[in-house]
Amino acid sequence: MRIVVLTKPVPDPASGGERLGPDGRLDRSNSPAVVNGNDEYVLEKALKLVEAAGEGEVVLLSMAPANAPETMRKALAMGATRGVLITDPAIEGSCTVATTRILAAALKMLDFDLALAGVDTSDGGAGVVAPGVAALAGLPFLSYAASIEPDMPGRTVRVRRITPAGYDLLEAPMPALISGTQALGEPRYPSLKGIMAARSKTIETLTLTDLGIDPATVGLSGATTRVVDSRPPKPREATRIIRDSPDEAARQLVDFLAERRLI
Amino acid sequence: MPEVTTHDRAPSPFRLTEAQKMLRDAVRVLADERIAPRAAEIDRTAEFPEDLRRLLADHDILALPFPEEHGGLGGELLTVCLAIEQLSRACATTGLILAVQELGSLPITLAGTPEQQARWFPRLASGEHLIAFALTEAEAGSDVAAARTRATRDQNDYVIDGAKRFISHGSIADLLTVFAVTDPEAPRHRRLSAFVVELPTEGFRVTRLEHKMGIRGSPTAELAFAGVRVPEANRLGEEGDGFDIAMRTLDHSRPGIAAQAVGIAQGALEVATQYARDRKQFGQRIGEFQMIGAMLADMDAATEAARQLLYKACVEIDAGAPDASRWSAMCKLVAGDTAMRVTTDAVQVLGGYGYIDEFPVERMMRDAKITQLYEGTQQIQRLVIARALLGKPD
Fold first, then answer.
1. Which residues of A fall within a CB distance of 8 Å from B78?
2. Would an 8 Å CB–CB cutoff place A11 in contact with chain B?
3. Helices (H) and strands (E) in chain B, counts
4. Taking a C-beta distance cutoff of 8 angstroms, is the pair B88, B95 a contact?
5. What pLDDT is attached to residue A223?
């Protein structure tokens, strides 16, 4: 079983160093890069599927600055077989459309049964790249997976999709692209054996030329969207806690809501 | 015009690789969660932490120094030292489990045949076997060549008679690398040979366990050899190579002790820093008093300086630097003295609380002292460095 996992290096949300640059875009220099949290969950699932199949490989696919191999090593230490990194100075500032085109072009160059992606990323958070890649690469797209059950002889995959009301059970032919949720299960810690083995795993680098994409159509200049303004959210106001007898507390609560025309 | 090279593209040894950082952090998490909570009890009971030996084995930490073809992880010296440092930050006794496993195996790494390595490494890498390094004798400490334990040839065997003292893990080891005189008539540095003794074996006895100031969970044993028979196949290198093997072993193993020292210093610095944040006197946190702040700053700077010298020494020694002995001696000299000073200052920062066992810094101070003594006293390190500077005496 061959699985490609789309992994994105993102600024470490735990570092507290996330900030916006003067152009309103995320300043990535201020915090160390880590593998996007949701991507680690789908990677864990990919590793489990290949382990259960007893054969195959898990290939990481990332589009990132040239220093991304450092971040990819952690995913390799968890057990991924090898990495493919799309890196090109012209990519910087790409919008989600360009990102989608680039990843779809790279995915078409790879052989796989399943492609997995985290349901969204902790930096951009748009959540549209995975479905876009599936559309451009001509793959069935199964979203919000809480479970993934491939049937290799039947060449189909079943996914339980989380919905507001419960689950949908989806089935699609392979190869397919699936966006997965944290319900897939906790990612493992890399073992020392995994860490040491990751040192000699290969990360292949692809440029826009390798993908046959015109640099002018991507990056900041080719972007279909522009950041007009961005600002951090206002800190939440202090919570008001009503401590009184039940009747009195209820009265105050109703007044509070009524004042704001919420009831 | 000649071509001008503007960039030296050699990999920088001044930054850790991503794998080294991951490994360091993985060991740190394990040490914080599983080892630190045991450290005080290990010190109090002076019992070898068998559970932590298994923990290190289960997490492949003991496999780090061994080659991959024998079940190891093929960690270079710096990687092994990163692990020893993180273990020792929580518990110096536990850090020593890995350091001694490496020390005892180095003679086999440096002088063993592929057959000998294949025979002993797999069970050392898995942690099933522990190995100890039996060089020191009661009357042969700094003066290694004064050893009197004899190995007498008897057809295809050697028969070992004598005694070794201050042998870390000597009472719990499954294998020993023993240095014994094979030719008392030879020049001083050609008298010794190195052997691997597989235990238990007839004629071998543990005659004493030392009561120590620090690293109290690590057993330090006196060993007696009375007609212990080992086959020729267990000799490492040629007859007379023993002194050279021992010296080359120490060149590679002293960084492990430096790593233990840096770890102890770091552990003490962290406790002192936390205490300076929490403790209030005269209505303010004591860390805000300049005298305390300056002490913490000096402790941090000294620990980092020792750490960087250690990392650099590891890279130089692994690269086969001709002055490996100098790097090795310098890093242990600086790190050992730093650990002693930083832990002493940590006790000072904590005041009376530093002197009692409610906080770990008094243990760390006692543990630090050994790093100035074993694998060559600080005086021997200075001797090695001075000789590298001045050349050997005529």
1. none
2. no
3. 11, 10
4. yes
5. 86
Structure tokens at B235: 């000799």
CATH of the domain at A21: 3.40.50.620
A vs B, Cβ pairs < 8 A, gives 44
- The residues of B carrying an active-site annotation are 375
Asked if the Cβ–Cβ distance from B23 to A70 is below 8 Å, we say no
Tell which phi-psi region holds residue A57, choosing left (phi > 0), alpha (psi between -120 and 50) or beta. Answer: beta
Is A73 touching B (CB cutoff 8 A)? yes
Radius of gyration over every alpha carbon of chain B, rounded to an integer in angstroms: 22
Residues of A in contact with B66 (CB under 8 A): none
d(CA A130, CA A181): 13
Residue with structure tokens 């936390």? B274
- Chain A CB contacts of B29 under 8 Å are 189
Contact A192 B64 (CB under 8 A): yes
Q: What is the pTM of this model?
A: 0.86
The answer to whether the CB atoms of A196 and B23 lie below 8 A apart is: yes
Which spans in B279-323 are helix H?
290-318
CA distance B87 to B359: 18
**What is the helix (H) or strand (E) element at residue B255, kind and residue range?**
helix B242-278
Domains of chain B (ranges, CATH numbers): 18-130 (1.10.540.10), 132-239 (2.40.110.10), 243-390 (1.20.140.10)
- What residues in A contact B82, CB-CB < 8 Å? none
Cβ count within 10 A of residue B282: 7
The parent domain of residue A117 ranges over 2-217
Domain-embedded: residue A225: no
Q: Is the ipTM beyond the 0.95 threshold?
A: no
Interface test with A, best of B23, B30, B62 (most A CBs within 10 A): B23
Query: What domain count does chain A have?
Result: 1
CA B16 to chain centre: 21
State pLDDT tens for residues A159-214: 999 999 999 999 999 999 999 999 999 999 899 999 999 999 999 999 999 999 99
A105 lies in some domain: yes
Please classify residue B272 by burial: count the beta carbons closer than 10 Å to its beta carbon, then call 0-12 exposed, 13-18 middle and 19+ buried.
Answer: buried
